[in-house]
Amino acid sequence: MDQTPQNKEDYFQLVPRCYTEMVDLPVIEIDGINHQSRRTIIVEDIANACKTYGFFQIVNHGIPQKVLDGALSTASSFFELPTNEKMKYRSDDVKSPVRYGTSLKDNAKYRRVVLKHYANPLDKYIALWPDNPHDYREKMSEYAKATQKLGVSLMGIITEGLGLGPEYKSDKMVKGVQAIMVNSYPPNPAAAQPDLELGLPPHSDCSCLSIVLQGSRGLQIQDSDGIWRDVSYVKGALVVNIGDCVEVMSNGVYKSVVHRVKILSNNFTRISIASLHSSALDEKVEVAEELVDDEKRPKGYKESTFNDFLNFISRNDISEGNYFIDTLRLVQSFVVPK
Ligand SMILES: O=C(O)CCC(=O)C(=O)O
Ligand SMILES: [Fe+2]
């Protein structure tokens, strides 16, 4: 893959700017997934990435650059709208299908502005999305449709890699929740120590898997020694991470790794779009029986639903290190230090 910077902005994105070490995430080409010989390699590469990092990047994923750029650009335009226009979508209800939230006014430790909306099935939700900017629904729905299709396909690759077969979760993902988190992380000119500014606190995703489009660098993941490492920005790539539901389903073979967002720039706003894919709100998430061995790997997690997670986050402040998945653990010896 050609990573030669085409212009100054791309060059800037590729040059490490802070003291944090980069994490050498695999960048996996996923074209040819329906050809058996290619599929075998991709399944193996993704299985290795899930075991080692819980994160990987994908390229040649079939989503045109124009669709990625369109989604980032309309997201950016949304955040530039006057406050009263954005506040129309404000809600304190974590279950609201469309929800705008900002922590900036509270002088909070974490500086993220977010528009969250459900996207699957699209027909049910699109009329609730912002219609300003005028191209928001068009551009974001192109991106949402493409990532939903990709999410189902990636889940098939993941379950195949676990020995559960490609169809193990397909129906559940097709009918499942797709929550799009449109994130904006503005710089804080008043920060006493800009290097310490965080956009998003450490958390793991409640999803089965998440697909993240980065507009620029800033995402960091915590390795098993507790060290934060930068995820590189690769133009056109999508970052994929395992969420809590897959950690549970895999009986801890794959980890839902803790990550956060750092504010790396003093002069521009970072945009990212995370598409979180999981089964339906009241669908049971449980350990796959096939991955339980009473002696070598006993069942490590209680069952739950996505609704349980939403109830948990409405009652707990996740920025205080409260992780939903910790409430599900049965076998402490399999816990990877967070
Ligand atoms: O902004 C990012 O890169 C990651 C966002 C994220 O982790 C999330 O929305 O759950
Ligand atoms: Fe996340």
TrEMBL record:
InterPro entries: DIOX_N, IPNS-like_FE2OG_OXY, IPNS-like_sf, Oxoglu/Fe-dep_dioxygenase_dom, Plant_2OG-oxidoreductases. Keywords: Iron, Metal-binding, Oxidoreductase. GO terms for molecular function: 2-oxoglutarate-dependent dioxygenase activity; metal ion binding. Residues 176-279 form the Fe2OG dioxygenase domain. Gene3D superfamilies: B-lactam Antibiotic, Isopenicillin N Synthase, Chain. One of its GO terms (biological process) is response to molecule of fungal origin. The keyword Iron applies. Belongs to the iron/ascorbate-dependent oxidoreductase family. This is OLC1v1019375C1. It comes from Oldenlandia corymbosa var. corymbosa.
